[in-house]
Amino acid sequence: MDNTKRYERLLERYRNGDLDRRSFLGLIGAAGVAYGVQTPFARMAFAQDVTQVRFDGWGGVVSEAFRRHAFDPYTAATGINVVDGTFSGGDEYLAQVRSSQEGEYNIAHLSGVFDYARYVNFGLDVALNIENIPNMELVMDALTNAFRGITPDHLSAVPYNYGTTGLAYNRAYISDEEIREKGASILIDPEYQGKIGGWSDWRTRLWYAALQTGQSPNDIQDMEAAWDAIRAHRDLALKYWGSGAELMSLLAEEEIYVTEGWSGRIAALQEQGHDIGYYDAPNSFGWQECLFVIKGSPVEACEELLNFMLAPETSIAVAEGQNYPPALDGSKVDLGSKIPTLPAYDPSGTLEALTFADPVYWNGNEAEWSETFARVQRGF
Amino acid sequence: MRSGFAIFDHAQFRHYAKQITDMSVEARERRQPWILLSAPLGAVTLLLLVPLVFIVIYSFWLRSAVGPDIAGFHPDNWQRALTDPFYRYILFNTLKIAAITTFFCALLGYPAAYFITRSSGNKLILLLLLMLPFWISYIIRTMSWINILGSSGALNTLLLSTGVISSPIQMLYNEATVILGLVHFLLPFMVLNIYVSLDGIDTNLEDAATSLGATRWQSFLQVTLPLSLPGLAAGGLLCFVLGAGTYITPLILGGPRDAMFANLVFEAIITQLNWPMGSALSLLLLLVLGALVAVYNRFLGMSQLTKGLG
């Protein structure tokens, strides 16, 4: 209720005779005094009116698509500017957020459900009002449910896209038949010593070690066998890559013939004309990305922006730019002609064909496994 | 009745006034350096000492499995950093790589510095050429080796096209390329320091040695080289400390196993989100390198270092 409404009600009560003249004038006087006293402080409160929202993502074509299809229309509709930041890695970004003041960072394009769980564990989540984000109706339930498993009573993020980390191989040296026959074990095949790559991410290394030792990635029973598989890969690998650009460069320059890789990046290499194959072996690493609203942010303004970002034209443009399928349900939205051809795309809208990391399992072991991997990587 | 003020005559008054003036001049002179130093001291306190205190405090906290760190006084991180053979191995490997890099910088840097010092006329151009790499990002300079030594890089392409080799040689992503990248990065620091030292040597001393029967080689070995050793040591210290503290070069040019101590700090803080352990590790590296600087200062003094940097 605003102040005008309050005064109108007060006047109505006075006119109806519910309030005597002395009380009416007393209340008006008190309101006047209260306004005079709070005015200097109110200026500070006005300064906190939402004038901008900060979004941090992976940059490049994704940022451009967001700017054109979501940020600019959002600013035109609301008058709120969107400050567009980028980060090179999720871990690095979390370190920045943890050392910042509340409200400094607002929305982040985060990887994986385990990132969602990590932010929740650090108390960085908010409770979104989904009714303010009508486009959530178009999102696949399978993706949203993964977040509800961590925060059953609220959501602090909306799903945005998904992909896989599958096997990428140079077709000039490795045939489609060979990769299907060997699967994840090709990454520890001595035949390709010095021509094997791998992401320097402990989760991915352990995931593939589980596949190489015939174990379920979400329930590794024989850890020593998995670490031995990582050691074998380490000794055969030429290089652990640290970014998508490095992955693409190593494959394109033929420094390596086989590695696990991000589906979108491999699709980009294929678009560029490189004869690089992509294969999701059984239990290949599926993941999703979300738009997470960080504690201290102007939640309503963020909800409105999320709705703009989830709009089909924005989601599809971003998906086509980054080569990862959007979180939108293909059975509810026409996703165009390119998206159904992208690696990892699931036309059913259930995502049952993909295996996602169990956030409770992986985050529960993060402290121990990430440190052990650092040692194993260096020969221990 | 005479007032109390009247007991001083004019001479006494002048005497006391002069004393007060002298004192204020002395006090002002004492204060002046502190006033001038207040801005840099403030900056050093705020930007170096205060963060360092935070890092020290953090190193005694503990990381929880999930969620915020556990505050308190826990020596666990220090105990692990000092007793775990893994950290010891990486620390020694880091010092070894820094020492080899410093050796190669000295080997390559001395002739270059000597040439610049003795050249006539084009000294400024040569010095400018020496400084030129600093205008390009260190990361870009490091990555340039991928285009030179890569499977489809310039060197392999040349060797293949001339028929010297039939298939590309794997030259990248090992400890040798890490050292190569570090030498590339640190060489100008060594050359500058040696140059400053050589430039300050009176050439008449070499002439005197020659006139007393020494050959040019003998005069270099017995006159020039000993006099330039402080510059060599200063360059060596700079190269060693900067080399031991780097993490970008092994990240770009190293293989899966290649890591230096700073990589462990980076991983602890960024990848593992274990800020307390990362703080302990970074302080350990600081203490080791600080001890080396202290030893250098004890025997050679820091003045040579500032000359080289200036």
UniProtKB/TrEMBL annotation, chain A:
<keyword id="KW-0732">Signal</keyword>
<dbReference type="InterPro" id="IPR006059">
    <property type="entry name" value="SBP"/>
</dbReference>
<dbReference type="Pfam" id="PF13416">
    <property type="entry name" value="SBP_bac_8"/>
</dbReference>
<dbReference type="InterPro" id="IPR006311">
    <property type="entry name" value="TAT_signal"/>
</dbReference>
<protein>
    <submittedName>
        <fullName>Extracellular solute-binding protein</fullName>
    </submittedName>
</protein>
